[in-house]
Amino acid sequence: MSGIAIIDYGAGNLKSVSNALGYLGFSHYITADPADLERAGAVILPGVGAFPDAMDKLRRRGMDAALRAQAGRKPILGICLGMQLLFDRGEEVRDCEGLSLVSGHVGLIRTDLKLPHIGWNSLRLQNNSPLFRGLDDGAYVYFVHSFCGYATREGDVIARTDYGASVVAAVARDGVLGCQFHPEKSGEVGLQILRNFGAMEQ
Fold it and tell me: Domains along the chain?
């Protein structure tokens, strides 16, 4: 089996991600079986909801160990909560261990603006990631979140956005990538990001 595996752990916006990949012509499938990650050419970890609930669901399915095993071997893309789970720990609801694929933690956005942050915002690209190939600095994407990643290494941050504070919008570390925004809901810009990710498939 090859193609892009979209992880179903009961906490993801699976249909819109699947629809976007199908529109782009990428072979993909939705799976709750950790063994399928071994056979995939790339993996997407979507997510909607709270950090500890999502981690509990990943652990119950054995997906946490499967993701760690595939990290560095094939491209992995976390979307929204899926990106947050890539970090060492999260502070939403209660302190909780994450996947530790990107160094740092997840906490509430330190802003005086209203939370959650919902809507379109521009990206400030940095560190020259292939995930953003063909995109201009300042491209707009769609966000829905109150928590964000605080990366230990600025070299892991490939995009930021401003929401009354500088917010990590995307990360990359050894083939593990994350978007705090929703590329599958971000029009042509989002499709280009998914197209770039699909081109990384092993």
Answer: 4-198 (3.40.50.880)
